[in-house]
Design a protein that fits this description.
- The chain is an alpha/beta fold.
- It folds into two domains: about 5-195, Formyl transferase, N-terminal domain (Rossmann fold); about 200-325, Aspartate Aminotransferase, domain 1 (Alpha-Beta Complex), CATH 3.90.1150.30.
- The chain contains ten helices and 13 strands.
- The chain has a seven-stranded mixed β-sheet, with helices on both faces.
- Helix 4 links the parallel strand 4 (about 90) and strand 5.
- Helix 1 packs parallel to helix 6.
- The longest helix has 24 residues, at about 170-190.
- Bound molecules: 5-O-phosphono-beta-D-ribofuranosylamine (GRF).
- 5-O-phosphono-beta-D-ribofuranosylamine binds near residues 20, 116, 141 and 180.
- The site of 5-O-phosphono-beta-D-ribofuranosylamine (GRF) has 14 residues, from helix 1 and strand 5.
């Protein structure tokens, strides 16, 4: 078993300015039990203040000016440094360049940004002045997932800051910064470790299971379960097990064709599958979810297969007909 330090997520940070958020992220990462480590701080500006701070802490730094380069060429140089660093996530902290759509797609779900407003309000620039002019009671900051559309990805966390009488954009900006420095390290830590968070895993499983026709959720022996058919006569096709019955795994239990298949799968891929207590005896297999790199398409396929194996013919026939088109 690898020790905690080697399991930390590797994070790169891109900056253009003073880098105070970068510093907050970096110093948080140096505390015991941090969920992430900073492996690179990169900038498009050689004079970005944060570069020296990072270097002083022994963090790799990289500078590549955008001047005289196309967006694609500049992005490519930054991405090379990112890949070279071994980073799994890219955290933008005042990086004043828009990344190309291709870059963002390649890193889909792995780029975070902090924006100084309570999104969806005030995307873009001049957020403080706009919040004051609108007479808002609060301004704040939002951490969001970066998607090709500017400041529009899923909001992960927000910090609120009261707008005082006589506030100017400058005074407000100063306090929002303090709030950002609290918010960002925590939001990054939560995001990189969400694959171990049962609420997050159950949310993803529920979304996939309940997208199948005529399904509903029903608790079974204290564990969330998913059934197909009517509320009255439905049948279970999946269970979510959060370290249930003394297991170390957070897992999805789905139905195999029987003991032979189940044992064969477990033998071939013991990191992916296990035989769950009680349910294993009747051919249910455990698909381990609290591990790195869960393939959610694979989870979806298992749910579909398990659903199909217990769904009434009336429903599967409809599904077969729909699949033909
Ligand atoms: C922050 O206000 C952040 O919300 C925005 O850029 C600013 C970066 O500030 N995206 P700093 O360089 O971290 O001090």
């Amino acid at each position: 078993m690898a020790d905690a330090a080697s399991q930390r997520a590797k994070v790169a940070i891109f900056i253009s300015g003073s880098g105070t958020n970068m510093a907050a992220l970096l110093y948080a990462s140096l505390l015991d039990d941090s969920a992430y480590e900073v492996v690179l701080v990169a900038s498009n500006k050689a004079d970005a203040g944060g570069l020296e701070i990072a270097a002083a802490e022994g963090v790799e730094t990289f500078v590549h000016s955008h001047k005289g380069h196309s967006r694609e060429a500049h992005d490519a140089a930054m991405e090379d440094a990112l890949i070279e660093s071994g980073a799994q996530y890219l955290v933008l902290a005042g990086y004043m360049r828009i990344l190309s759509d291709e870059f963002v797609r390649r890193w889909e779900g792995r780029i975070l940004n902090i924006h100084p407003s309570l999104l969806p309000k005030y995307k873009g620039l001049d957020t403080y002045a706009r919040a004051i002019a609108a007479g808002d009671s609060h301004a704040g900051a939002s951490v969001h997932v970066v998607t090709p559309e500017l400041d529009a990805g899923e909001v992960l966390a927000q910090a609120r800051v009261a707008i005082r009488e006589g506030e100017t954009p400058e005074t407000l900006a100063g306090r929002v910064k303090f709030a950002e420095h609290q918010l960002y390290p925590r939001a990054v830590a939560d995001y990189v470790s969400r694959g171990l968070n049962p609420d997050y895993l159950l949310g993803r499983v529920s979304e996939l299971a309940l997208a199948l026709p005529e399904t509903h959720s029903r608790e079974s022996h204290g564990a969330p379960g998913f059934r197909v058919g009517s509320e009255k006569a439905g049948k279970f096709f999946a269970y979510f097990s959060d370290r249930h019955h003394g297991s170390e795994h957070i897992a999805l239990l789905v139905k195999t064709s029987g003991m032979d298949e189940m044992l064969g799968l477990i033998e071939a891929q013991p990191d992916v599958y296990f035989k769950p207590a009680f349910y294993g005896a009747s051919g249910w297999i455990g698909l381990i979810l609290n591990r790195a790199d869960v393939d959610w398409t694979h989870v979806e396929e298992w749910l579909m297969r398990s659903w199909r194996s217990v769904a009434p013919a009336r429903i599967t026939k409809l599904q077969d007909a729909a699949d033909m088109f």
